[in-house]
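Reopening this one. Same input as before:
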Amino acid sequence: MPGKHLTINLLKENQLDFFGEFIKWTLTIGRILVIVTEIIALGAFVYRFSLDRRLIDLRSEIRQKQTIIAAQKANEDKYQDLHDRIYVASNFSSLAQERNKILKDVLNFTPQGIRLNSLALQPDKMTIEANVTLSNSLGFFVNSLKNYPVVESITIDNIEQRPQANFVFAGITANLKKSKFDAQMPSDDSQNPNPNETKEESN
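Same output, byte for byte:
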């Protein structure tokens, strides 16, 4: 028979118990750490999925709001354009009324002895051509123009004696003060430089 092998254990029994318990405790802690790590990884995956879902919903909501804003922008542009048109039309109407009042006032204070050949009203000036049969009538008419509130200055461009017709021809330019409605007027002077030109005659 083969000889028996002798095993010599130099550790004490209590040391063996402690070592075994330590190994068991280490394995238990390792299992717990693995489980905790897996739980954390699973939680991170679920949280990432939740974030992706929220991101998709947020992008969809942004696209919807962009569509609504684009639709409202078109309506806002139409409203603003309509508002601007109404505002310009209102100023244009006010300016037309102001110009008509100027024409009527000039005709009203035209004295006897002056016959108006033409009266042209432009945005910044008024030109008058008249036949004068009474000498003092011209001075009265010029003074009336000077004292008119919208007139800034008066220039007598031409005075021509016409003895064969028994009258004096006079050309007068009245520079007008800037109207508060002129700033809102569309620039269309090139098409109609004398929009309010009219011819009147007065005895």
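So the earlier flakiness isn't reproducible anymore. For the record, The CA atoms of residues 25 and 84 lie 84 Å apart.
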